[in-house]
Write a structure and sequence with these properties.
Blueprint (H helix, E strand, L loop, with lengths): L1 H25 L11 H11 L2 H6 L4 E2 L10 E2 L20 H5 L4 H24 L36 H16 L12 E5 L13 E2 L4 H8 L1 H9 L4 E4 L3 E2 L2 E2 L4 H11 L5 E4 L3 H7 L7 H11 L15 H6 L5 H18 L21 H14 L1 E5 L13 E4 L6 H4 L13 H6 L7 E4 L8 E5 L4 E3 L2 E2 L1 E6 L10 E5 L3 E4 L16 E8 L5 E17 L2 E8 L5 E7 L5 E8 L7 E11 L3 H6 L5 E7 L16 E2 L2 E2 L6 H12 L3 E7 L9 H4 L2 E4 L7 H9 L32 H4 L16 E3 L3 E2 L3 E2 L5 E9 L5 E11 L9 E10 L4 E8 L5 E4 L4 E4 L2 E8 L7 E8 L1
Parallel strand pairs: 3-5, 4-6, 5-8, 10-11, 10-24, 24-27, 27-28, 31-39
Antiparallel strand pairs: 1-2, 6-7, 9-28, 12-23, 13-14, 13-18, 15-16, 15-18, 17-23, 18-22, 19-20, 19-21, 19-22, 19-23, 25-26, 29-32, 30-32, 32-35, 33-34, 33-38, 36-37, 38-39
Length: 871
């Protein structure tokens, strides 16, 4: 045995020596030496680069430098709630839903899983001999820590709500989960805090908007805290600057934001990346620069290090800027240092054998543990807003129930936006089916999300070359050039995707392909018809050679195009499609006559059924980033009002008038003004966009297998009349911090049990400005079911004229057995009493009286009060 050990020891020594000698021979330059610091390696590499090479390395799609062995690198990938734009990954709930959990510990576990899956996908791709590409890289532009100040913003679903403290707590754990242990040699991924700093819509004006009404107090108390927390407490490695201007300066060209605040005040030392196309906006939209040369110079001098753009990088004009004396090469070197340090920190230029994260295998993708995390978080997001007469939970052995509504059987709706494609998704209808015996459920879509009409399809009335349906022709290039791969006939409404590695047709590649769909239609009646469809990628609809709809987009957008036809006249219909920009290919199309929705038949189907679960709300097809959605109430991905679409309100009204007991499951990424629905519905469950297991989580709550504990991370207003001008960024009258007349307030959520919050004990009531307070709060479960309460602590500075009414400063999830009492412990550090001081123009803990509120929501009726003195 000792002899074997000796042989093994000698073998290992030999292997190590051989590896070391090989490594030395391979290391021609210091920047290739993993033993040096990232800074030392970056300095050496910069000294060997030409100006042209330096500039291209500052583009988000960075070209390789073959002579030095530098590989191609892409900075743009997404990991909002799973590794986005990739197949077979775990899709967790949308962030706004996860914020409702108030569970930052679980959030860390989720983003640790997300980063594992991202590394696994990347490793699998690279080891197959592929080059780094967009959406398959180690830089992820997550999290979005903007403040969701206005519920009309379509991208608010990507955030952690309207509160700076909750956003900070959640964002810190996202970054830590994505980047890996701080003491590790290599970062697992590089996370990104976006969009710095004052940014929350509207989508339609973000490229031109100039914000000059934001007071210094609102800037430092509302819009900056989450970014500061991610920089100083999470060591985030990227910050993305926003599109709009702040006080006349584009955010990506603002020395105030990127130098004085970010670097000088907060000590941030890593890279800044532009939002995609933001530098081009300098001269095309904001008109603060005359051309690309000046825009690029302005951005780099202000502190932007990496530029993202769809095409034609202004940063590639930096060489011209140097020649013209607008910027020095030393200024470019300063930015490039931060860029290259980031790449060295990832281990992306080192052998996989010495980078632990490079060993993560594909087997982690959607593994059982990750599936369980997705379900656990989906359950915790469920927020019960109304439960009249305790109609919930539903009985599993009761009478037959009806499941109605446009979101009931819609799996992609559960994915939200900026998502990947999961291995499997449980729709809400699927989830409910697991709770009841066969034959106990009647399902009917009932109505559309928005449209108050139903389309009678004419797809079966068209033909091409004497064959029914559409002729589909495919090419394995994006330009429809050369010989086609295959032609085939499509006889049903078009609905195709490459999700799950599905080809559009046999032999058609998953990327870089194009198609034409052609047919002829001879209408029987002179009337107006509608074309409905959309695509991810390039989409163009032509009728008789005239283009009716054309766009390139990275999500499938449902568009409605009305068109007048004459009886007996032939119409040639053509759809041109191309997969673009590493976007997952999708296309859907149908056409026909619209008829008014009539609920008479629906009510007849429900005869003998008393309980109806209506699943409605919104969808990622309606709210999101800069979307050309053409429906009443929606504009550019945002909403113009926050009421539930009329067609759904009418359906709920018809159900109630028919005497049904209505449980409304609302799926949305933003607040809905439920004022009419509180009357027409017996129960309201806010289900957000629940991810791959969202349907199971909804069913678990509806039937009592899980006791809901979610709390609103945003205010649900009574109506759109309570909202100010969308483009006004002043916080006065917005969110729970500056208004107290909500339908459902921030922090609100019901349970199937009841809790009593006892009198809090403080370890001190008078403190110095640098001292903390320890609060101990008794929580008693006075009901008959075990449950979880989220105890919340708010602070108000007495005699603070223009400050917030109250602002969240602590919370604690407390699970309590029925009939028992648990103690919630919440620490209030000195920063809990920090507010903007107008005299010193900075955040400060000032002497004086403070009120500390604690309870179960931000509503005054749910809170108890204590007084604290800062000496």
């Amino acid at each position: 045995m000792n002899l074997i050990k000796a042989i093994v020891k000698k073998y290992l020594i030999l292997v190590v020596c051989l590896w070391a000698s090989t490594t030395v021979r391979a290391q021609q330059y210091p920047f290739q030496n993993p033993q040096l610091t990232s800074k030392e390696r970056a300095e050496d590499l910069i000294s060997r680069l030409t100006l042209d090479e330096k500039v291209t390395l500052m583009c988000d799609q960075s070209d390789p430098v073959p002579r030095l062995g530098i590989k191609r690198f892409n900075w743009w990938s997404e990991a909002l709630h799973g590794y986005a734009n990739n197949n077979n990954v775990t899709v967790f709930p949308e962030p706004i839903g996860m914020a409702a959990s108030f569970d930052d510990a679980l959030l860390y576990k989720i983003y640790n899983a997300v980063s594992d899956e991202a590394r696994a996908k990347y490793n699998q791709w690279i080891k197959a001999g592929n080059e780094n590409k967009r959406f398959l890289s180690l830089s992820v532009w997550t999290p979005n820590v903007n403040i969701f100040r206005d519920p009309r913003w379509g991208r608010g679903q990507e955030t952690y709500g309207e509160d700076p403290y909750l956003t900070s707590r959640m964002g810190i754990q996202v970054v830590k989960g994505l980047q890996g242990p701080e003491n590790a040699k290599y970062r697992k991924l590089l996370a990104c805090a976006k969009h710095f700093a004052v940014h929350s819509g509207p989508e339609w004006s973000r490229h031109e908007l100039n914000l000059n009404s934001v007071s210094p107090r609102e800037l430092y108390e509302t819009y900056l805290p989450a970014f500061k927390a991610l920089v100083q407490k999470a060591d985030v490695r990227q910050v993305m600057c926003a599109y709009q201007r702040l006080d006349d300066e584009p955010c990506c060209g603002s020395t105030r934001l990127l130098q004085r605040i970010l670097r000088d005040d907060w000590g941030y030392k890593y890279l800044v990346v532009s939002d995609c196309g933001a530098i081009t906006d300098f001269f095309t939209s904001h008109k603060v620069s005359s051309d690309a040369v000046h825009a690029a110079s302005k951005a780099v001098l202000a502190g932007t290090d990496v530029e993202c753009v769809w095409q034609n990088y202004p940063f590639k004009k930096l060489t011209d800027a140097v020649e013209r004396g607008l910027i020095r090469e030393e200024d470019i070197n300063k930015s490039l240092m931060r860029v290259l340090e980031g790449r060295f920190d990832l281990g992306e230029m080192d052998p996989d054998s010495i980078v632990p994260w490079a060993q993560i295998p594909p087997s982690v993708l959607n593994e059982k543990e990750h599936q369980e995390l997705a379900l656990e978080m989906a359950r915790e997001t469920m927020t019960l807003l109304q439960n009249k007469n305790h109609v919930l939970p539903l009985s599993k052995s009761g009478k037959k129930i009806a499941v109605i509504g446009p979101n009931a059987d819609d799996k992609p709706m559960l994915w939200g936006n900026y998502n990947g494609t999961p291995v499997r998704t449980i729709s809400i209808l699927d989830g409910i089916k697991t709770k009841l015996p066969a034959g106990k459920i009647l399902y009917d879509k009932g109505c559309d999300l928005v449209e108050d009409k139903v389309t009678q399809s004419y797809f079966d009335q068209c033909s091409f070359d004497g064959k029914p349906g559409f002729k589909a022709t495919y090419w394995n290039n994006p330009d429809r050039k050369g010989d086609a791969v295959i032609t085939q006939q499509i006889v049903n409404p078009i609905k195709m995707t490459t999700a799950g590695q599905h080809e559009f047709a046999s032999g058609v590649k998953l990327e870089g392909f194009s198609a034409i769909y052609q047919t002829e239609f001879v209408p029987k009646t002179t009337e107006e018809i509608v074309f409905k469809g959309g695509a991810t990628g390039h989409f163009e609809l032509l009728v008789n050679g005239e283009s009716l709809k054309k766009y390139d987009n990275w999500r499938t957008l449902s568009s409605r195009v009305p068109f007048k036809v004459e009886a007996g006249k032939k119409y040639s219909i053509e759809i041109r499609y191309a997969q673009l920009n590493n976007w997952q290919a999708n296309i859907e199309f149908n056409f026909g006559k619209e008829v008014d929705v009539d609920y008479t038949d629906l009510i007849k189907k429900l005869k003998g059924i008393d309980e109806v679960v209506f699943v409605g709300g919104l969808s990622g097809k309606l709210e999101g980033e800069e979307m050309p959605v053409s429906y009443p109430g929606f504009k550019g991905g945002d909403r113009t009002n926050i009421e539930l679409p009329a067609v759904q309100r009418n359906c709920l009204k018809a159900l109630k008038e028919a005497g049904k007991q209505v449980i409304f499951v609302n799926c949305s990424g933003s607040a809905i003004a439920f004022t009419p629905e509180t009357e027409s519905c017996d129960a309201i469950l806010q289900a957000w966009y629940g991810g791959e297991s969202g349907g199971q989580a909804v069913a678990d709550v509806l039937f009592g297998d899980y006791n809901p504990s979610g709390k609103l991370p945003i205010t649900f207003y009574k109506s759109s009349d309570q909202l100010k001008d969308f483009e006004d960024y002043s916080m006065q009258g917005r969110t729970y911090r500056y208004m107290n007349d909500a339908l459902f307030p921030f922090g609100y959520g019901l349970s199937y049990t009841t809790f009593d919050i006892g009198t809090a004990k403080l370890d001190k009531t008078k403190i110095n400005p640098d001292e903390s307070i320890r609060m101990t709060i008794p929580v008693t479960n006075t009901g008959e079911r075990d449950g979880t309460e989220i105890v919340q602590v708010y602070v108000h500075k007495v005699n603070d004229i223009d400050g917030p009414i109250k602002t969240l400063k602590g919370f604690n999830r407390v699970s309590v057995t029925a009939g028992k009492t648990e103690q919630a412990t919440i620490m209030l550090p000195p920063s809990s009493f920090e507010f903007y001081d107008w005299n010193t123009r900075r955040m400060k803990v000032s002497p004086g009286e403070y009120q500390v509120f604690y309870g179960t929501s931000s509503d005054s009726n749910d809170l108890k009060k204590l007084n604290i003195t800062v000496l």
